[in-house]
Structure formats: C-alpha cells, structure tokens
Fold this sequence. Notes:
Blueprint: E1 3-8, E2 14-18, E3 24-28, H1 32-44, E4 48-55, H2 59-66, E5 92-95, H3 99-118, H4 132-157, E6 175-180, H5 187-195, E7 202-207, H6 215-218, H7 223-233, E8 238-241, H8 244-258, E9 261-263, E10 274-281, E11 284-290, H9 297-304, H10 307-320, E12 324-331, H11 338-351, E13 359-366, H12 373-393, E14 401-405, H13 409-418, E15 421-424, H14 434-441, E16 447-451, H15 457-460, E17 465-467, H16 472-484
Parallel strand pairs: 1-4, 1-6, 4-5, 6-7, 7-8, 8-11, 12-13, 12-15, 13-14, 15-16, 16-17
Antiparallel strand pairs: 2-3, 9-10, 10-11
Helix pairs in contact: 3-4, 4-5, 7-8, 10-13, 11-12, 11-16
Amino acid sequence: MKQRVLVASNRGPVSYRFGADGTLVGTRGGGGLVAGVTSGLAAMAPEAEVSWICAALSDADRAAARQRCADPWDPEGPQDPLGTRQPGDVPVRMLDIPRRTLDSAYNNVANSTLWFTHHLLFDTPNQPRFGHGFWRDWACYLEYNEAFAGALAEEARAEGTVADGEPGEAARPDVRVLIQDYHLSLAPRLLRERLGADCRDIGVAHFSHTPWAPPDYYRILPGEVGRAVLDGMLAADQVGFHAERWAAAFLDCCQAVLGADVSRDGGRGAAGATAAGRVTHRGHVSEVTVHPLGVDAPGLRARAQAGDVRAHVTALRQVTGGRKVIVRVDRTELSKNIVRGLAAYRELLATRPEWHGRVVHLALAYPSRSAIPEYRAYTEQVRRLARQISEEFGTPDWEPLILDVKDDYPRSLAACALADVLLVNPVRDGMNLVAQEGPVVSERGCALVLSREAGAAATLGDDALIVNPYDVSETAAALHQALAMPDAE
Length: 489
C-alpha cells in the first residue's frame, strides 16, 4: 500500500478567485513555503498518496471550501484557467475557519507575536503588551490549531488508514504528517491528543521556515505561551529548521524554558538531514534536524525563458539603458530590511560619485501583511526614501532607482536575469530563496551581497559578499565592491 502523506499549512498550493461569470477559478499558490514543500512532495511521487490541508483565506476560497472541492482541478469543481495540471498535483482540503478566529490567529498571534519574536523585531520600549486582548487572540490561535488538528485526524483515519478498534485490528499503511511553520506550532500536540493510541503508527514532523529566537528573547512571550509553543512542537517526531543556528536556538529554548532533556549529538538525521540533537519531553523523543532549502534550477531557468518574462527583460533593458543593475526582490516585510538597503544605495551614490549615471537599482517589493499597522507604515517609509533618492541624485537622462511595489513574479525573474548585483540583506531570515534564485537565472553572473543573518549564508557564505545588515556603510562598500568586480569573478 502507498505511503500516505498529509501536509498542513496556513496557505496552500492553490487559491481561488471569482471569474467574470461568478464561477470559481483555481490558480496555483506561490511563496517559498509552498514552492519548497511542493518540490519535496514531487520527489516522493508516485510512491506517496498526498493530501494538503490549508486555510480558506479569501471569499472565493471559502466558497470553494463550502462546495467541498477537494481537488482544485476536479472537472466538477473550480477549473484551472491555464490548463496547467501536472502529474504530482495534490488534492487540497480548505478549512473554512471563522473569520474572526482566522484574523486573530493569523494577524495578531502568528504574524504580530510569533513572527516578531523569531525575527527579533519588537520595539521593546513600547511593544509587545500582553493584555486581555492578547489572550482573546491566543484563544483564537488555539482554536485555529484545533481546526487543523481535527482535519488531520479525520484524514489520518480515512479509508482505513488508522484502525478505529483495538491495536492490531487492521493493517495500517505508512502515514506521515508534515505540519508547516509558526502558524501551526500547537497542532502536533493537538493531533496526538485526538488520535490517542492510534498515533503510534503515524509519523509527525513540524518544520519551521523562520529563524528561532534565543532563550533570552524568546522569554518575551508570556510563560504560558512560550511553553505551549515548545510543547506543541515537541509532540512531533521530527522538528526541522533551515539552518543549524535556528535548530541550536530551539534546543536552547527547550532546555531553558521547559527544562527538557536535550542532547546535541549532531551527525546524520532522517532522510539525509543533518541532526542537530534530540529533545526528550513528556516521555517522547523528538529529533531536531536541519534541512537547507534549495531551488529547482532547471525549472527556474526554463520559466525565465517564457514569453512573459522575456517581454519584461526587453522592457527593463530599455529602462536601465545598458547600465550596471543592482536588484532586490522582497516582500515589504519588516525583516527584509529594505529601508537600510535603500540607505546603503544612497550612501553608495553619495560617497562614490563615479557611479552616477552608470548604475540603476531595481527594487521590486511585494506588498505584505497590509492588515498590520507596522507593515503599512514600513511600506510608506520605503516609498518615501525611494522618492528622496530619485530627487537627490536623478537627472533628466538617468533614473537611479526604480521601485515597484506590486506582486509581479515574471517581472521579478526578468530583473534577476539582468542583475549584475543581487542585494539580499534581511535582519533575520529562516533561509531566503531569492539569494539562490537570483544567481540561478542571472544572465550576466551576478555578485551576491548577502546578510550574515540569512539562513542562506550558511550555504552561500563562501560565494557571497557577507554584510552586517545593520551596517549601512558596510553594505554600501559591498555594493561598490560587487559593482567593480570583474565579470569573470
């Protein structure tokens, strides 16, 4: 019997919109998490039977969930407008979680609390403030995780996967549950509780696509919350991270906050991963592993040759006029450090006038988390600084900076194809796929200016110009070094 694989994540591999005639249309989902998980699942096929559980995020998603369309390309359900269904596409189950629950869990706990903690983003003289309102939000986060745990338990028991009777009463196939990211940190424990004795035949993994905070910072969280997050994840058999330093910080927190028994033996883990250590908690052993995420280089290069990308390449060549090109592609996310990156470019132009008229900075930023006030303010700060740079240095025949704040993947690929320099300077990042994708599609062989705080620095550090993301002058100097670097190098 085939191995059964259940994936759970906040955002799934498909999203819906309403067509002009009001019908539901399914489109492929994007983002690093979806891309990474999808590529991993493709490696399992056809040996595995895969199902993906995610949240309904839009009105169209909710309509699809109410129609119980398990497969977004089912002939009787919403249609794929591009006819792009491929082998390995998986059935998707969307959960129609109440709006207030989803909003509070996603925006107020996952993104405003846990994300800020792991990326060390709090303005600590002012934030956070854990009052009565937070505890209402925390109850919603628990409810949100319970919805996923309940759906996973149902899927695990479906079609005889898990016997409902006594142990050994029915043959059980190999079942693996892959729970993704900080949105679902409580789900492994809740799933174990629902399955009870049945869970012994199910392997559960939790993977964090973010960094992990060291204990001193992690303790910003209320004690109950900090313990619940760790306890929830430690119900998994394997807890994975993108970089050794994030895994090490997690082990430190398990020891300092929970008093768990931690070993740091290293070596090889399951499925070829690097083992960072093991945690014994409540009688259960969790293996903590490191899995650096790569990219599909042949697939990216093929996509970069598509007509829509080539049209953008032609347009951007005209705009940049044969000058050197510095590219960044990021969400307008606080941790991506766009403002300091722009400040470094401004300092480059102020201190190295030889680059005037010879370089253009393409800053392509995807809108992010506009429901959170700090993100709206940050996006406006990015726009304001970009205007100042153009006003200060621009001439009638030279636009030094082109900022575009919109989601346009083909244009982003086109910009990377033209890059002489790729700037990736997050203050903290679990991995960062752009640092790998950009050099893969660059037609000129770009130099990479990379933050030491990106998980990707662990694998790309020897082949990049590594910078302190808080040091604007060092970043400006690295941009100059990258621009002046011989093409062969």
